[in-house]
Design a protein that fits this description.
Elements lengths: L16 H7 L11 H21 L5 H18 L4 H15 L16
Length: 113
């Protein structure tokens, strides 16, 4: 006799994940987030995906970047911005503060007293 096992996730998942779980013979309990829950859930998901990228092996990095891209696209739309607005804001910031192409690592800053 097999015993039921329940794993609690409490996180945002891709749209087809419940279908995939059920196709595997398991039962997924899901709910649709309301508007006030969506942005915090997407931000948490972005942090989760960034950590997965940090830990990924080189061959897995493209897939992790795709996950981050997908979450960022959903977050952009949920916040009411367009991709073009985000790209323009990035261009503006790059013009003002630079990008990351020079690979600069800031070790420390000393202030005169």
């Amino acid at each position: 006799m097999s015993q039921e096992q329940t794993i609690i996730y409490g996180k945002l998942v891709r749209d087809r994940i419940p279908e995939i779980i059920e196709a595997d013979g398991r039962t997924a309990r899901v709910r649709v987030l309301d508007e006030s829950e969506l942005v915090p859930a997407l931000i948490a998901k972005l942090a989760e995906e960034a950590e997965e990228l940090r830990q990924a092996e080189p061959d897995d990095r493209l897939g992790e970047l795709a996950d981050i891209y997908e979450v960022l696209a959903a977050l952009t739309a949920s916040l009411g911005f367009s991709d073009e607005q985000v790209q323009e804001a990035a261009r503006h910031k790059r013009a003002k503060r630079g990008g990351f192409s020079r690979r600069l690592w800031l070790d420390e800053v000393t202030s005169a007293e």
